[in-house]
């Protein structure tokens, strides 16, 4: 046996002895640490936490403590408004080699443990964190739909194929999510801004947006996503395989176009009946668009239901079947631009001055108002569905002048109590 062979044999014997003795070629230390959103997503996005923070990946404010506390896997702190700021992810599992450990062992941000983690973020020599090491479960034929505009943001994804157990209220495992576009850019999503208790819902905004509770959505970080195509959504789950959902969803361009009903002169609604018709007018529609009727619904919020068989031709909408008093919504869709909708008020008796169609507020809700100064007490009622945060709206009707403020649950003299919809 020559000298080289003897050295190779000796090396193999030493390595085998180390393995048998419980040692590895490199020794690692494991710990838990809280991370800001920017720290948590730095490894996945290939950017530094400082760059991500500058791009707008910062804390998310919740107007109440209740919502923040329900996200048990997150870090939050009280703010000056009586709510809480959700700053990042709690107790993230990390691994560091001996050299990094020697430099970091006195850092109080780490809680070192004797356990070894199979899922972890590696700690780099400069103190930053790499991409999560974990198992992946891929869904190639996932049903992913998009609504735009939506109640919770400029865009709302419905990932219908995701495991429904993530939406059961047990949020311990739901650390975050990644949205990757076809240009290769990866965006980290934040709870209470993009992610919700129901995991199938992911919302994001590309411009200033206020949701139904009056909370402004953070949009700076995702402002460049309009017009991009989302090809992958990854759910980051603690000590579970991450769910990777491959998809092909185009984020339609936003538009200032609108569509609205044109009621008969002197009317503020249409009378209920069989197969009623209403003229619709369009404004500001892009010249390269091709909007077509995509659906008609009745009601608002979670009580909304689809009405089948409706048609639109020569600017006239026909609502199929026997209609009833309330709000009908006709939605028009285009392949490149966001949906636009018309709210149509339907009344069962006098539709002249007894119903006033209020303008939509920032949340996109619609109200039906009846004048309070009429002799018939049954007409002195405010009829509204999911009334939330309508601010300083005054009726244009001479018989009804009422200022609304979102801070009051009871609208004085109306007999109506505000009903707040729940977060998704």
Short description:
This protein is mainly β and 424 residues long. It contains five helices and 28 strands. The protein has three domains: 28-122, no CATH class; 136-250, no CATH class; 258-417, Immunoglobulins (Immunoglobulin-like), CATH 2.60.40.10.
Enter the CATH topology name of the largest domain.
Answer: Immunoglobulin-like
Mean of all residue-level pLDDT scores: 79
Cα distance spanning the termini: 72 Å
Q: Helix fraction? A: 10-25%
3D shape: elongated
What oligomeric state do the depicted chains represent? single chain
- The gyration radius over C-alpha positions equals 28 Å
For the sheet with most strands, the description reads: 6 strands, mixed
Uncertain ranges: 17-25, 353-422
Supply the number of helical segments: 5
- Structural class by helix and strand composition: mainly beta
Strand content: 25-35%
Examine the secondary-structure arrangement and name the CATH architecture of the largest domain: Sandwich
Can you identify the CATH superfamily of the largest domain? Immunoglobulins
Overview of this structure, please?
By secondary structure, this protein is mainly beta. The chain has 3 domains: 95 residues, no CATH class; 115 residues, no CATH class; 160 residues, Immunoglobulin-like (Sandwich), CATH 2.60.40. It contains 5 helices and 28 strands. Strands 1, 2, 3, 4, 5 and 6 form a 6-stranded mixed β-sheet that branches. A 5-stranded mixed β-sheet has the order 7-14-13-10-11, covered by helices on one side. A 5-stranded mixed β-sheet has the order 16-23-22-18-19, with no helix packed on it. A hairpin with a 6-residue loop joins strand 18 and strand 19. The radius of gyration is 28 Å and the shape is elongated. The termini are far apart.
